[in-house]
Every structure is written in C-alpha cells, then in structure tokens.
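pasting for ref
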Amino acid sequence: VRGHIDWKYALALELTDPGFDASVLTEFRARLVTSGTETLLLDTLLRDFQERGLLRGQGKQRTDSTVILAAIRTLNRLELVGETLRHALNRLAVVAPEWLHPKIQPGWVERYSARIDSFRLPKAKTERQALASTIGADGFTLLSLIAAADTPSIVRNEPAAHMLMRVWIQQYYGPGDPPRWRTDDDAPPSPLLIHSPYDDEAHYSIKRGEPWVGYKVHLTESCDADAPRLITHVETTAATTPDDQLLPVIHAALAKKVLLPSEHVVDCGYTSSEILVESPQQYGVRIIGPVAQDPSWQAREQTGFTNGAFTLDWERKVAQCPQGKTSRKWAPGVDGSGQAVIQIRFAHSDCFSCPVRDQCTRAKREPRTVTVREQIYHEALQAARQRQSTPAFKKAYAIRAGIESTISQGVRAADLRRTRYSGLAKTHLQHIVIAVVLNLIRVVAWLAKPQSPAQRITPFQALAAAG
C-alpha cells in the first residue's frame, strides 16, 4: 500500500498516504476469529452479487472437498513427547520465569533446549525406549509441580501445561518408575489423537489412499450456464469429519443466504439414504450424486441374491425371497452405527432345502438374513442405485467435474491445500479469503466476457474428436 499506486487507487487513498502497519492485518484477523464474523467477508460479497443479478438461488450448485495440510512438522511419537515438553518449558519460561527457574531439573537444559529432531535422537531401539521413559518421567515431574497447591494460577492456566497433560495421558501409562509407553492398540481414536503441541485440532486421516495431518475444506459453487461460477459457501472441518455429515450444514447456511439450489450435485462421499430423503423434505433440494454400491459379497461377485432381490411387503411386514419363500421374522433394531434397521430372517426348513442356497448365503448353520433400512430410506437407496446406471443420470452428474477446476484454481492461485495458521478457526478464515479472491477474479472475467468458460481438453483429445 505504501509503494504501489494500484493499491492506493483500489483503497481510494492519496498518493502520499503512508499506509498502515502490518500488525493491523493481524489484529483484524483476530477480531474476526474471536467474534466469529469471518463469514461476513464472503456473505457481504455474495449479497452484492445477488443485487446485481450475478447470483441467484434455485439454480444448480456443486460441492466437493480437498485436504488441507496443517502448518506443523510430522512428528513420530518420541519427537511428539519431547517437543511437547520443550514447548511447555518455553511457555512457562515466558509467563512465569520466577516460578520455573528454581524448579529446573538436572538434564532438562541438555534435553529440551534445542528442537527435538529424529536425527539428533538415538538410533538403537533400546536407547530410544530409555529416552522415552526419561522424557515421560520429566513430564510427570513437571505436571506434579504444576499441580502443587502453591502453584500460581498463571501456571495452572497456561495452555501449554494443559497440552502437556493431554499428550502424556495419550502416550504414557503412569506415572510409574519408569513411565511406560501406551500400546498402539490403546491409543485414542484419530479424532482425539494429538499430533503436534502447536495445533491440537490437526488430525490424521486418509483420502483415496493418501494420508495427511490437517483439515478438510468443502467448497460449494454455483454452476448455472448463464451466470458466473461463484463460490457460495465454504466449510472447513477436521480431517476426520465424514463428508456425508456436511450437506445439512451447507444447506442450512445457504438457506440463510437465500441461495439454496434446486439441484445439488455431489460425489458419493456426500450421499446417503438420509440425505436423499431429508434434503428435498427440509430444503427442497434435489441431490444428484451416486450412492455407495451394495457392499455384500453377492453384489461384489454378481453371482448371488442381493437385498434388492427380495420383495418387501411393508404393510404385512414380511419379505419374499427369489424362490418364493416367505420370511419368518421381521424385527426392528439398530445396527453398529446406531441407525434404525429391520432384520428379516427366513425359516431353517426353507433355506436348508433350497436348491440355490449357495447363491444366497454362505452361513453353515444359519438361514438367510436380510438387514434393510426403514422403508423410506430403503426405497430411496434402491431407487438411487437404479437411477445412477441410466444415461440421464450420467448426463446430469457430468457437471460435478467442474468443481475440480475450482479446487485446482484455489491450489495454484492461493495455495489452498496448505494452511498458514494454527487451529481450525484461523484456517477457516484463510479459506473464506481465498473464496472471496476467486469470486472477484471470476466476476471480473465474466463482466469482460459474459459466458461460461469452455471445457479445456488436451491436444490429443481434440485430435481424436476431430477424427
């Protein structure tokens, strides 16, 4: 702003204006995050676009997610505990130096003065185990000092001290003499496991076989042919949050902006029988996207009778198998994920005398059982599986691929896949700003040439199409 005329022009400043100190941006960011008003940056812009006729609801929109790498080092367990203790000592040396100085134990300065790196640590397994025990004992010693009755409140309330306690609970059995590592089988689940003392909200996950530690961002954009493609909503989540939990959140946010689409195109990560039923009911949004295929061995091998091969009479609460036999048991229940299901069981006498039993079940001593969702969800799922094999569905679903170009533009223009900050809130603010920037770029391009960009193809594709 001090040195560039274009920025002075954009901000309506005099050429002699001295600009502002860089700390103003940090303070502005902190106010937005603290007050939870970061979405105003995007929502204000979207309202202006709506008023100018560049954006409207009841059209088509699409959503997809991508991984976000946290601004942390990848640490193994030994590095993690060492760096966590070093972080706690450094913070306490700042907030309560008079309290910490007389309590420094022999060996602490040597072990925790420098950053904990694997190349500095011993290589032999027994030596690493001994170091892990030593670090564990040091941590428990510091925790006991913090927990003492005469410890100042500023020490007790220090976030780094709380982080030390959380990491030690996750990594050690103890206190003991010496403390023992927790086994891998006794580690916390991924949504709770801490991977760095500097960002406890960054978690481990895997997408398409690729692991990462960080977050996920879900971008929703309009995709009507007669209007610019604009990002209408940004949702940043923990890396471990399943995609199929996000559509209700996205639809609720779009409803507040009066930007609900009539059709929402998503991939199979977002679809479920609940989404297919409840999105039209609650928001009037039709979901276009593939659902997961039947996971049974009969469906995978295509040699047996899947659940869809059974005729269900919901009023009489009976099922009929492909051989015409009627079920003997129809019992509502709950599956392992807590969903309401119906468990259907056939008679022993019918199943064991059936000539095609090997196509129906591989159970040695039990008859065929069929587990289905409640009627409204079961029928929605079966209808979706049939519909997604039709040419009409493939044509309607084809526009989903366009969201990949938005993610690509975000990665190349704004380094979307890496967060510059620690924590979910600041990372979300970064994604909001990126969405604002991409929207401005697209609106300027649309005003200069009001038409949707042509789909890019490779020279080889063009040559093949011409031939």
